[in-house]
Design a protein that fits this description.
The chain is mainly alpha-helical. The chain has two domains: 68 residues; 126 residues, no CATH class. The longest helix is centred in the middle third of the chain and has 42 residues.
Amino acid sequence: MLAALIRLSGSMIEGLIRMVVNRNVTLTPDMMDSILWNVQAGCSLAEISLIALVFYLSLKKLRRYKGLVDEDDYAQMGRLQEEVFGKNISSLSADSIEQLLQMWAVILIGAECVYFCSSIVYRRFTTELMLLLFGGQQYTSFVSIYNLAHGFKYLEMLTAIVLGIVMTAIVLHDRYLKIAAAVITLVFLLAFGIFQMQTIQVSGRQIGIVWTSVIFHLTETFGLFILSVYLSKRYRGL
């Protein structure tokens, strides 16, 4: 609820500033206006910080409450809560609530971070497109647009895979999987926003390497295979 209110407040503030700022009518989109762009970036960073603070304080509060009861008394406390709540209201264990908090923290904060980074890249994409159409830098702009477009192509599927890894890590209380997911996300975002396409010569032919494509295909093939081997070795089933 607090995260939703923070997002709503940020959108309202951004909308009000857009109404106040007078902008000359041009052929370029609003994102090319430096004032409006800085406002959007500032609102996004503020929302990420505040939402992260909300989830941090919530998890801290929950763990403090968990520490008030011995683990041996968890089951008995749970039965007592069920008697008080009644049959029509589900009661969740503290561990379940903690897992849900972590999951939604990853979804809301992680998704906002990805959105912020993709907004930056999309602005660059639009700039390169304007140069391609009106600036006369056809080849350079085309290569840059091709490289940036590949990041958007793989962003959704890679996000789904990373979310799967993180959710697995939260359920299994596995910090190594959380670190692996963070590393994959960081490397992909760096490739998405910073790395340029590299060209190599193979048998007299030029081949362009798009690093977002390399990272994505390695993750969905070798990465998932390594994950399955790790899970089968470290954990046992039924």
